[in-house]
Structure formats: C-alpha cells, structure tokens
Amino acid sequence: MALAGAVRCWRLGAGPSSLQMQALSLHMSKTAMGASQKDFESAMNQVKLLKKDPGNEVKLKLYALYKQTTEGPCNTPRPGVFDLINKAKWDAWNALGNLPKETARQNYVDLVSDLSSSDSSSQVKPEADRKQPGYETLVVTSEDSITKIMMNRPAKKNALTIQMYREIMLALEAASKDDSTIIVLTGNGDYYSSGNDLMNFMNIPPGEMEKEAKNGAILLRDFVGCFIDFPKPLVAVINGPAIGISVTILGLFDLVYASDRATFHTPFTHLGQSPEGCSSYTFPKIMGQAKAAEMLMFGKKLTAREACAQGLVTEVFPDSTFQKEVWTRLKAYSKLPRNTLHISKQSIRNLEKEKLHAVNAEENSVLQERWLSDECINAVMSFLSRKAKL
Ligand SMILES: CCCCCC/C=C/C(=O)SCCNC(=O)CCNC(=O)[C@H](O)C(C)(C)COP(=O)(O)OP(=O)(O)OC[C@H]1O[C@@H](n2cnc3c(N)ncnc32)[C@H](O)[C@@H]1OP(=O)(O)O
C-alpha cells in the first residue's frame, strides 16, 4: 500500500520528494527483514516532517508504540482522573499489554510509513491536474476546500461573453453542492474583468432588438440571482482593474480582496446604461448615497484604496505579494468549521434576499429599455469602431 502510494505520487509531481524517498526506503527495509533501530529512528524523524496533523487517535497510537519500543510494557501508575491527557496516553500504552518490543518497533515504523505516503499524496498537485472539465471560458479548480472560478479571457481583459455568464452560473451551481467551504471568483491576466463584452450587443438584426434585449435581461436576472442566493462564502480576488458588472455584483460578495493595482469603474451613464447587480441598493448601503451617486451616476473610477475606504473592498494588498498573501489567508479561513460558516453567511444574508431579488428585477427592466436607447447604441458603436475607450 505504502509503496504503491509513493510510486503513484511521483507520477503526479515532478519527481519524488525527500519525504517520499524516505517513506519508500523505510517500506523496503521493513518488509525485507523487520524494522531495525535505525528504521525506528528514521521513522521518528519522519513524524516531525508530516505536513498533515494525523489526529489525536493516531498520535496516541504512535506514543504507545514508541513507549512500548523504548521501555517495554506499561510500568507506571495510572494518572489521576483530572489529568486527562496523561491518562489517555497511559491508557493507550497500557492497552499494548505485553507486546514484544520488536513488534512495537515494527508497528511504529509501518504506521509512520503509511502516514508519510498519505501525507505526500495530499501535497499540492499542479493546477492542470486539478482543473475541472467542461468549461471553455473559465478555469475552475478545487483545492484546500476552496473552489476557484477564474475568468479566462485575458486577451480580452476577461470581458464577459454570453457563454461566460452561463458558465459562471454553472460553476456556481456546482460549487454550491461540492464539498468546498469557500468559493473564489478571480481573473486571469492583468484585468479582473472589463465587464460585459460589448460584442454581446452586435450582430442583432434590426427586427430582433426588442427580443434580444428581453433575453439579455432574463440572462442578467438569472446571473445576478445566482449571487443573491449563493449559500456559501463568496470571495472576490480582484487581481486588476474591474469594470461594469464585475464591480456592481461585489455588493453581493462576503469578502473582496484587491491588489493595489485594481481600480473600480462603473461608467454606466457614459454607456447609456443604468446600474445593475443590485448596486442601486447595495452601493448606497455600503458607501452612503453621495459616494454611490458619484460612482454609479457620474462614473467616478475608484482606486483600490478608495474602494476600501468606502467599504466596497475588504482589504488591499501590494500587487507584488497579492496572490501569496490572499491565498494564505483564504487557506486559513477554509479550515474553519464549514457548516457553521455557511449558517452564519445565511443568517447575515437571508433577511435581504427578497429585497435583493426585487431590486434585481427592477434594475433589469430599466436596463432592458436602456439597451434600446440611442444613447446606449451610440456608445457601444463608438467603442466598437474604436472611437471610444473608457
Ligand atoms: C447579457 C447582457 C448583460 C449585460 C450586463 C450589463 C453590464 C454592463 C457593463 O459591464 S458596462 C461595462 C462594459 N465595459 C466596457 O465598456 C469596457 C470596454 N473596454 C475598454 O474600454 C478597454 O478595452 C479597456 C479600458 C478595458 C482596456 O483598454 P486597453 O488596455 O487599451 O486594452 P484594449 O482596449 O486593447 O483591449 C484588449 C482587447 O480586449 C477587448 N475588450 C476589452 N474589454 C472589452 C469589452 N468590455 N467588450 C468587448 N471587448 C473588450 C478590446 O476590444 C481588445 O480587443 P482587440 O485586441 O482589439 O480585438
């Protein structure tokens, strides 16, 4: 078992780690002639290198086998009832009865060898191995109880196509049911997202405009609805500039971590459009009426630090250490008791859900009209003919 585990791990990684080599040599020597004193000492060193805590039950077993190997059968008085830890250790040792020292040593070495193998196989696998299949515009991975949904159109600044909205909804739906504790949305490349792909408005035959606007509003309602209803902690890892809908839905996230290179821009008026993502309700609540108006009506672009000062962003990190710091933090959070975390999220959010769905419906009905307006059509045409950029 241990040997098969060690060999399998080599195929997943670049090559055997020193831990895997030790596990393998330990396994080979013990099966050939029984564990020697040297094997025992090497196993004791290996225990210190384990990355995963084996849990109290295994630790007690290791302790008992160690004592039996070095001192023989338990020969001390049982600790008092209130000395709980020493009593548990004594019980474990005493339970080994008259087990010979050599057998205890062998069992100790075997146990450490198995622990090392499973410890090695739980080490980080390359992202390509963890990637979930079925997504063309996203990279979805799960590790350390975190499901990461990464928008993956870096050449187009992660502008959101119709397919991308649909895939994000599918990924959220799957993540709501998987065994992850936390869900992260982030972007690949220099942008978090430049918002709606303005090509979504192209190639619509004149007679189909109204129908397409209606379909767009339904898609947008469902997309935002997924964030309103999402049952687990949602974290936005804002790796670069964010525009439009990628900003407005942030009010529906539980944590927003931003690189100091990120900016937050909602230029709806410039585009002949109106706020969506429930921002007409969440932004005034988060930052107050005056600041929300400056962003949503007048298109003021905020730096990450300004967005943090106004409560839209949880914390800003230097770009040079952004990924390292954020993922260390999230890995620690992902070890919190999962069910309690989800229940707390629901207590915080559930009261607002009905209101948020009503706001979502209202925003989309206004937007559906806007998309048909001259102001919107001219703004989109201007961008697409490269006369205008934000
Ligand atoms: C179902 C419908 C739901 C609708 C929901 C309502 C949502 C509303 C919004 O999100 S409004 C916000 C819309 N976004 C924009 O208006 C941004 C437009 N893009 C830009 O202004 C610029 O591209 C930029 C500032 C993001 C980046 O500028 P720059 O650094 O100079 O790079 P490029 O412009 O050369 O971009 C590279 C490449 O990407 C294409 N691109 C970028 N963003 C978008 C976009 N939002 N839509 C379409 N295409 C985009 C850009 O055209 C370039 O393509 P090319 O290399 O020329 O083929």
UniProtKB/TrEMBL annotation:
Catalytic activity from the UniProt record: a (3E)-enoyl-CoA = a 4-saturated (2E)-enoyl-CoA; a (3Z)-enoyl-CoA = a 4-saturated (2E)-enoyl-CoA; (3Z)-octenoyl-CoA = (2E)-octenoyl-CoA; (3E)-tetradecenoyl-CoA = (2E)-tetradecenoyl-CoA
Q: Where in the cell is it found?
A: Mitochondrion; Peroxisome matrix
- Write down the EC number: 5.3.3.8
Concerning Gene3D superfamilies, the annotation shows: 1.20.80.10, 2-enoyl-CoA Hydratase, Chain A, domain 1, Lyase 2-enoyl-coa Hydratase, Chain A, domain 2
Question: Keywords for this entry?
Answer: Acetylation, Isomerase, Mitochondrion, Peroxisome, Phosphoprotein, Transit peptide
Q: Which residues form the ACB domain?
A: 36-121
Give the UniProt entry's GO cellular component terms.
mitochondrion; peroxisomal matrix
Molecular functions per Gene Ontology: delta(3)-delta(2)-enoyl-CoA isomerase activity; fatty-acyl-CoA binding
User: What is the first-listed, main subcellular location in coarse terms?
Assistant: mitochondrion
Q: Which InterPro entries has this protein been placed in?
A: Acyl-CoA-binding_protein (IPR000582), Acyl-CoA-binding_sf (IPR035984), ClpP/crotonase-like_dom_sf (IPR029045), ECH/Chromodomain_protein (IPR051053), Enoyl-CoA_hydra/iso (IPR001753), Enoyl-CoA_hydra_C (IPR014748), FERM/acyl-CoA-bd_prot_sf (IPR014352)
**SUPFAM superfamilies listed in its UniProt record:** Acyl-CoA binding protein, ClpP/crotonase
Please, which domain of life does this record's source organism belong to? Eukaryota
What pathway is this protein a component of? Lipid metabolism; fatty acid beta-oxidation
Q: Which family does it belong to?
A: In the C-terminal section; belongs to the enoyl-CoA hydratase/isomerase family.
Record's function text: Able to isomerize both 3-cis and 3-trans double bonds into the 2-trans form in a range of enoyl-CoA species. Has a preference for 3-trans substrates.
Its protein name is: Enoyl-CoA delta isomerase 2
The species is Canis lupus dingo
